[in-house]
Amino acid sequence: MPKKPVSKKTTSVARSEIKEAALLEKSVLAEEVLSHDGQYRIGIMTLNSASTMNAVDLEMVNLIDDILARWQADDGIVAMVMCGAGDKAFSAGGDIRQLYSSMQAEGDEHLKYADAFFHGEYSKNYRVHLFGKPLIAWGHGFVMGGGLGLFIGASHRVGTETLKLAWPEIRIGLFPDVAGSYYLSRLPFPLGHWMALTGSQMNAVDCKQVGLIDYCVPNNELSRLVEQLRQQPWQENKAMNNQHVRRLLTRFEKQSEMVSSEAPEPLFPKSKLNENQKDIKQLFASMSQQRFTSLADNKSALSYIAERLNALDSDNAWFNQGRDNFNAGCPATAHLIMRQLQLGKNMTLKEVVQWELILALQSVRHPDFCEGIRAMVVDKDFQPIWQHCSVNDVPQAWVEAMLVPLWPVGEHPFDRL
Asked: What is the pLDDT of residues 186-195, one digit of tens each?
């Protein structure tokens, strides 16, 4: 991943043609590059915290929202590229260390930051879905959690050969947030359940196959893509501009396929899903034969999944990693995931955002999330002590309590989102 979103050659041209190149704090970079005819501009936003794998905190959330709002309202901006600094990640998620500190704080500071973060993250990531203009999200390295929530709302999602996309929240006692309920529930069954319950990482080939990304393009093509975006015949018609971007990215993808076919080694990794499709389907076979609609049904299904997961004999490292993640993950999170996938498939995106805010604010008020961060990130002993020993031990009343809003009826803060 280049440290700047354009090549050396493009930079030298752009410096004389950029109408505005602003550094909005060190954590987010915003640059506006002129089209070749000087009539329009392409916005390039870079998450610029490589040392934290571009983990998003509240300050970054607000800066991202400011950029999106400004470029959305600016008729001179015809398209946008969103990428991450460094070689390791677009974004590995939210800055959970700050959330941990907020949950540990006392007095007036207790949960102050955590509540503000989730209010900001949910309302402002929703703006990505409403941007309206071509928005290219460049998925290299880790794209997880809150970072995935930002990435997945883009109109043109690119995965590179280094992509590792996942909802790994079960490992820290949260839940697949920032619209995870919407996207996971719409994946081909039972992939959404597998991804959420195991936190398995998906490569670009598999993400393209199931619709989580739109294009597979090599990571070293980002600079050339920006230069080609400058050459497009932009106009005021947003539909035509989206068509230009689709054609351009499709051309990049086909070119990479031709190069890869002639190379001694494939550029993109082979499918993990195809290798494990049979075992994954067998794992969730009971659910495909019955209707699971209640919390009691969910407990029955999870009990079966846990039993089958440990009975399946696989020599595939990817499958076994998923099994280990489930076994070590938070049992209560597994129950929330089942509810997310039941309800999310019948909700609009806006309804999911409103509903998941309730889960997020309840999560910081229950001990599993705090304990998960302690074990996996702070102390790094990797031995979380969850409230419940297994999925069989999670009471239905606990799940019901997590679904209760914190506001009176009619006073949800996102009612007018």
From this structure: 999 999 999 9
Q: Answer whether 59's CB lies under 8 Å from 27's CB.
A: yes
Please report, for the chain, how many H helices and E strands are present, in that order. Answer: 18, 10
**Helix, strand, coil percent values for the chain (each to nearest 5):** 55, 10, 35
Contacts of residues 217-220 at CB distance under 8 Å and 24 or more positions apart, as own/partner, are: 217/158, 217/159, 217/160, 217/249, 217/252, 217/253, 217/256, 218/160, 218/161, 218/256, 218/267, 219/1, 219/140, 219/160, 219/161, 219/162, 220/2
Q: Is there a domain that residue 1 lies in? A: no
Residue 395, pLDDT score? 95
Q: What is the pLDDT of residue 13?
A: 37
- Report CA Rg, the chain: 22
237, 366: one domain: no
| 138 and 220 assigned to the same domain | yes
So what's the pLDDT on residue 261? 72
CB 295 within 8 A of CB 303: no
| Cβ contacts of 16 within 8 Å, gap of 6 or more | none
Residues of the chain with pLDDT under 70: 1-25, 288-292
Q: How far is CA 14 from CA 3, 21, 81, 136, 249, in A?
A: 16, 10, 15, 19, 21
Helix, strand, or coil (residue 329): coil
> Which CATH number do you get for residue 184?
3.90.226.10
The answer to whether residue 408 sits within a structural domain is: no
Please, are residues 48 and 27 in contact by the beta-carbon 8 Å criterion? yes
* Structural domain harbouring 289: 273-402
- Which pLDDT score, from 0 to 100, does residue 294 have? 81
Q: Say which DSSP state 4 is in.
A: S
Yes or no: say if 98 and 60 are a contact pair by the CB < 8 Å rule: no
- The number of distinct structural domains making up the chain is 2
* Domain-embedded: residue 268: no
How far apart CA 334 and CA 340 sit, in angstroms, is 10
> What is the rounded distance in angstroms from the CA atom of residue 366 to the CA atom of residue 369?
7
